[in-house]
Amino acid sequence: xxxxxxxxxxxxxxxxxxxxxxxxxxxxxxxxxxxxxxxxxxxxxxxxxxxxxxxxxxxxxxxxxxxxxxxxxxxxxxxxxxxxxxxxxxxxxxxxxxxxxxxxxxxxxxxxxxxxxxxxxxxxxxxxxxxxxxxxxxxxxxxxxxxxxxxxxxxxxxxxxxxxxxxxxxxxxxxxxxxxxxxxxxxxxxxxxxxxxxxxxxxxxxxxxxxxxxxxxxxxx
Length: 221
Prior knowledge:
The protein is of the alpha+beta class. It has a single domain (3-201), classed as Gcn5-related N-acetyltransferase (GNAT) (Aminopeptidase). The chain has helices at residues 10-15, 30-33, 38-55, 113-125, 157-162, 181-203, 214-217; strands spanning 3-7, 60-65, 68-76, 96-104, 133-139, 155-156, 166-169, 176-180. Strands 1, 2, 3, 4, 5, 6, 7 and 8 form an 8-stranded mixed beta sheet that branches. Strand 2 (60-65) and strand 3 (68-76) form a beta hairpin. The longest helix has 23 residues, at 181-203. The radius of gyration is 20 Å and the shape is globular.
């Protein structure tokens, strides 16, 4: 089974069957999103992605399994995310990008795709000027749905903790969690090193031995 992540595009967004595909909880103010039809919400979602791509750059990753998109996450500077103001643990730190939505198709949940998406986000954000961390408003197990949204609009705190986020501003229902960019870089490097080891084992022919150093082949007199 081939698994990878690719940047979020409008075509991939349209191909996703996520329940948050047309949700505007994060992307628009309540007064702007209330009263819109599902088709209008979908168009507004596309307009938001286009705006962020044009003015800031890549703002999401899509998990692809055997050529089929099965999950995604989105992130952007807080200036593009007016829905964040609804949280009691707001605002987002000035040096951080906000991770908003993370979704995996139920049949693929628990297989490490969420971690793969975070790794893809790390790869995308590394080297961008002025970004020192990624933050997220999390929901605990007892948190109700946020006003104007559903429970799927907010990433579970348990998942964020598993992939390296730590509580930055505590709250019993919606803590704000943070992952430093240096942690993202370190984690990305460890993951890539582990992957290279796996690939090396798979590619090495059966019975092949490790290369012999030049010094051992041609010892000095």
